[in-house]
Write a structure and sequence with these properties.
ornithine cyclodeaminase, domain 1; alpha/beta; 11 helices; 8-stranded parallel β-sheet; Rossmann fold; about 325 residues
Amino acid sequence: MAGLPFIQECDVEAHLSWQQVVEAISLGHRQARARISDLFLTREADTLLNRAAWIDGLGIGLKTVTVMSANPAQGLPTVQGLMIVFDAVTGTPAALIDSQLVTKWKTAADSLLGALKLARPDSRKLLILGAGEVSYSLALAYSALFPGIDRVMIWNRTAANAQKLVDRLATDGIRAECVQDLPQAVAEADIVSSATMSHSPILKGEWLRPGTHLDLIGAFRPDMREADDEVLLKARIFVDCRETTLDHIGELKTPLAEGILRREDILGDLYDLEAGANGRTGPDDITVFKNGGGAHLDLMTASAILKAYAGRQGK
C-alpha cells in the first residue's frame, strides 16, 4: 500500500476530456459484462454506501461514500468518499481516487454515450432541467460532443438558480439561456436532459415532438420519477444497465409494477447498444435513455482517470 496514489481533481482535470471518458465507457461495455453489488448501511438520516464492480480485463473497483445530512450546517459536504481500484488479476490495490471526481465525469459521460447512440446526430437545441453540478457537467459534455448544438436552454423550478448556471456557463464560453415555459421549451428541444430531484413526473408526453431524445438522470430511488407514462409509451426505451435500473428506480420500476410497461418494452442497455442493437430507427423516433449509474460505470470512468494521471506523470 506504500506509495499508492491518491488522485484528486487538481491532478487530472487538465489532462482529461469528455471524449476520453465516453470512449472508456464505450470500451468497458465491449468487455465481459460487469459483476456488480451494492451495500447500504444507515443510521437514521445518514448513509454509508458501498458500490463494487469487477470487470474482467479492466479491474476491480469499490466506491465508498458517506451521506451525512447534518454536514452542511457544519460547513462540510453532504457526500464524501473514496474509490479504490484493484488490479483485475492479482487484486493488488492500484489507486485511490476522490469519489466526487469519479462521479462528476461518470454521470455526464454515461448520458453522453446514450445520446450518441440514440439522439439525432444533427441535434441543435439542448434543454437541461435542473441547475446543480450535474447540469453544469451536462452542458459542458453535450457542447463538447454534439458540435451542432447552437442553443442551450436551462430550466429550474427556481429561476434564479437557472440564471446562476447560465452565468457560470458563460465563463466557459457556452452561451445558454434561462427558460421558464417548460412545455414550450420541451417542444422546441432536440435533446432534453433532466437532472432534477423530482419525486413525481415533470416531463409530459403530450409536449414531445417527433425526433426528440430524452436523457433521464435525476431519479435514483424507487419513489422518484421525472417522466410520465405517456413519455414512456411514446418512446423507444433504453437504459445504461438493466440490473441497476428496472427493479430499483421508480422511473421504470413503477410503470412496470403497474402494468403500464412490460420488461420487453425496455429495448436494451449500453451493452446491447455497443453490440449493435437497433437504437434510433429513424428521424421521427422519440428515444428515452435512463441513466441509472452503477459501480461498473465508476470503474470504467476510473480507467480513463488513471490513464490521464499516468500521462501527466509521463509514464
